[in-house]
Specification:
The complex is a heterodimer of chains A (398) and B (364). By secondary structure, chain A is an all-alpha fold. Chain A contains 17 helices and no strands. In chain A, helix 3 packs antiparallel against helix 4, helix 5 packs across helix 7 and helix 9 packs across helix 10. In chain B, 24% of the residues lie in helices and 33% in strands. Chain B has a six-stranded antiparallel sheet with strand order 4-3-6-1-2-5. In chain B, strands 12, 13, 14, 15, 16 and 17 form a six-stranded mixed sheet that branches. In chain B, helix 5 links the parallel strand 8 and strand 9. Classes of the chains: A mainly alpha (398), B alpha/beta (364). Chains A and B meet through helix 3 and helix 9 of A and helix 1, helix 2 and strand 4 of B.
Chain lengths: 398, 364
């Protein structure tokens, strides 16, 4: 992905009065690129046994947790078993999708040359087939991050998440669309990898390539559903129904969690979006800069970082999508220092604050721009909102 | 014990296959074997692996690894090699090593003997850093550097350095079946001779005639001297293994004497003759395009570009790295030969000894 970028000179983020990069010269931007390239080389040069052991450990732990949880769920008739099994399975599914699946499919572990842990062979516990996800995610989203009209992740084609996006009455319902999308996020991802909205229009529906990919998705959905809603319940005998609800709950929890983490990556306040024209002839330094300004982190404990698949280090991930995820936290202080030296805004905050910030944007931008300001003023004048903000500011690390 | 008859065994097999399919519905998207690998990586149905159980030093820079192969191991013929995949600094590396164990060992273990090469990533790891209990990847034994049946009446083994390893595999298994054996082996000093004690013992008990050449003292063996060392060499079926220089000289000498069909060689490294002009290489399945020079094997080019390249001995003998060349031209680094393919041909090339000789498209 990154290799494509180097042939584009002269990019500017969307020219608006508060251009966060106005103080940077072209030389500054290219120096940022050089520093980040050097950081990348440092990590690549030191990749080794420790990293390989890390991902193998996570995979092994995830498999044991999933196996253990599913075993406990064979007795899900008993409420404690249902609770423990559902909690364990939820965590296992989250680990599988985030720290393991997402990152392996990014090629973060290809350097190990282990065919079992390789982007070309991995299939994940999600209804979107890995091939389709890799195309829409690795190629489109990571290359065109936050470019309006190019990056479909930006509102997933159903939402308006930047005031630079044009408003339509359809967006009035976007808080609801977003909630529904969160609950069934894996299906949202599959639909979006299929570009369902575009492809269901007349004339495109019969495209053989689309039909082939749609068939592939349906097959994957069938396998996934058979496993969670038929095979495992049947294995549970008298606990069948309870196992079914447990598996449904685990999928729901995984969907809500991953959706929240993904929202925090690009939607919170302080994250910039870019015009299509602005990336024409983008240099490597400018591509890096767009990734820096177009992503937001989540602060928290090591366990939190693991559960987000280290997408809590979204900025570092977007700068270096194919570096091993266990390294993002290690390089984060250096990246943050770079932001500070070039007076750029490193957007980060605890999960509740970032989720609230993203949701706030989704509510507000459901309205046309002229209405947004009025509502914003009204909300900010509302005492409970002040209280909440104070609370978030207090939990935010120094 | 009851013996399963044909139909019953067939019924069991189909039952097993059906059970395996059902198990896949339980574990999808991963396979049941992914879980079983955590518990029993050496079971017969798993990908072939082995566990290093013992490591014995042979010389200051060579060790013998005693390996317990997985249940799927099909045995070997003495003189053959096995490809071994080990994770060095987190990266899986495949190399081929000659088997030195008895083919009928009662404990089912196999052994290979590894000499640390200068800058050898895997050999240095195995000699200096590997520890017993390490799990490694294996492939089935391969190679035709073996003794024929019936055994030859007179045999000559011409070896140098670690080239003694396949020969030791043959001697340990078949020395009693060979009536007249001469081993001419070169090593820098007496202490560098791998299996020195065992070879000298075989010589002391008159099972072989051993000629050691200590090159630090006596200089490199010149095959012109061969008449003085083994007068009847041209009457002997000969197996030669060692550095390229020795093997090239042997091929020349045996051809000149008109007995090249009695010479069997095993090469450890490709000898690079011609370097070409290189070109743009596309790995079409992974959608990766890079520029390659004419001296770098496509295997290295692909690995550096992050393509999952099948690989093996990295010296052109094992064909573990073979991939279809869909389009373009490559040059064989050993002899300069050009191989060309047009779309649809799907010519298989060995990526470890082939370099780009123009634009090419590899199906990987």
């Amino acid at each position: 992905m990154t290799a494509v970028i180097s042939e584009r000179p002269d990019v500017r983020p969307v020219a608006d009065p508060a251009d966060p990069t106005a103080h940077l010269s072209d030389a500054d931007i290219e120096n940022i690129g050089k520093e980040l390239d050097a950081l990348r080389e440092q990590v690549i040069a030191s990749r080794g046994e420790r990293d390989a052991a890390y991902i193998r450990r996570v995979i092994e732990a995830q498999r044991k947790l999933e196996l253990g949880s599913r075993a406990v769920l064979l007795f899900s008739l008993f409420p404690p078993a249902w609770l423990a099994g559902t909690a364990g399975l939820s965590i296992a599914k989250i680990l599988e999708n985030m720290e393991i699946g997402h990152n392996i499919m990014h090629g973060q572990w290809d350097w190990m040359r282990d065919p079992k842990i390789h982007s070309t062979t991995w299939e994940w516990d999600n209804v979107s087939p890995s091939d389709q996800w890799k195309h829409s995610h690795n190629q489109i989203h990571h290359t065109y991050t936050n470019v309006i009209g190019k990056d479909n992740d930006l509102g997933y084609g159903i939402m308006r998440v930047s005031s630079d996006q044009k408003w339509y009455p359809f967006y009035l319902g976007q808080p609801l669309w977003n909630f529904v999308n969160a609950c069934f996020f894996e299906f949202g991802i599959a639909a979006y990898d299929l570009e369902l909205g575009k492809n269901l229009q007349a004339g495109r529906r019969d495209d053989p390539d689309f039909r082939r990919r749609a068939k592939q998705v349906l097959r994957k959905i069938r396998r996934q559903a058979t496993k969670d809603y038929v095979v495992h319940p049947l294995l549970s005998g008298p606990s069948a129904l309870h196992t079914l609800t447990a598996n449904f709950t685990a999928n729901l929890v995984r969907n809500l969690w991953t959706h929240s983490v993904i929202m925090c990556g690009h939607f919170p306040y302080g994250v910039d979006t870019f015009e299509r024209s602005s990336i024409v002839g983008e240099t490597r330094g400018q591509w890096y800069l767009r990734q820096m300004l177009g992503s937001a982190n989540i602060s928290g404990s090591p366990f939190m970082h693991l559960m987000t698949g280290n997408l809590s280090h979204q900025i570092e991930h977007h700068l270096f999508p194919d570096l091993p995820s266990n390294r993002y936290g290690e390089i984060a202080p250096k990246v943050r220092d770079l932001f500070e030296r070039y007076q750029l805004n490193y957007v980060t905050g605890p999960l509740p604050k970032q989720v609230a910030s993203a949701w706030r944007k989704i509510f507000l931008l459901s309205l046309p721009n002229n209405a947004v300001e009025q509502v914003e003023r009204a909300i900010d004048g509302f005492p409970p909102a002040k209280l909440l903000r104070g609370l978030f500011n207090r939990v935010r690390p120094a | 014990m009851a013996v399963l008859t044909g139909p019953t065994r067939g019924a069991f097999a189909s039952l097993r296959a059906r059970a395996a399919r059902i198990a896949e519905f339980v574990t999808t998207p991963v396979l049941p074997s992914d879980y079983l690998d955590m518990i029993s990586p050496l079971r017969a149905s798993a990908d072939l692996r082995g566990r290093i159980e013992e490591i014995h030093p042979e010389t200051s820079d060579a060790v013998t690894l005693v390996i317990r192969p997985g249940g799927g191991w099909r045995g070997h013929v003495p003189g053959q090699y096995v490809r071994i995949g080990v994770d060095v600094d987190g990266v899986r590396q495949w190399r081929a090593y000659s088997l030195t164990s008895r083919a009928d060992s009662t404990d089912g273990r196999i052994s290979v003997t590894v000499k640390a090469m200068p800058d050898g990533v895997v050999s240095n790891y195995l000699v200096r850093r590997a520890r017993p209990d390490t799990l490694i990847q294996l492939d089935q034994a391969k190679g035709d550097f073996t003794l024929p049946s019936p055994r030859p009446g007179k045999a000559l083994f011409l070896t140098a350095g670690s080239g003694i390893t396949p020969v030791m595999g043959m001697l340990r298994n078949a020395v009693t079946e060979l009536d007249d054996v001469v081993v001419v082996h070169s090593a820098p000093r007496s202490s560098d001779v791998i299996f020195g004690g065992e070879l000298r013992q075989l010589a002391a008990t008159r099972q072989i005639r051993l000629v050691e050449r200590h090159t630090d003292v006596e200089g490199m063996l010149d095959l012109a001297e061969l008449d003085g060392i083994v007068a009847d060499w041209a009457e002997r079926e000969t197996w030669a293994c060692g550095p390229t220089g020795l093997l090239d000289a042997a091929e020349q000498r045996w051809s000149d004497a008109g007995v090249v069909d009695q010479l069997h060689t095993e090469r450890f490294r490709p000898s690079v003759i011609v370097t070409g002009e290189g070109g743009q290489v596309t790995f079409s399945k992974t959608d990766t395009t890079v520029d390659a020079d004419g001296a770098t094997p496509l295997l290295d080019t692909g690995e550096r570009a992050g393509v999952l390249m099948p690989s093996g001995c990295r010296m052109g003998i094992c064909f573990g790295c073979v991939a279809p060349l869909r389009d373009g031209a490559v040059r064989d680094l050993r002899n300069g030969e050009i191989t060309m393919a047009a779309p649809g041909d799907g010519v298989l090339i060995q990526t470890c000894v082939s370099a780009a000789a123009g634009t090419c498209d590899i199906e990987l």
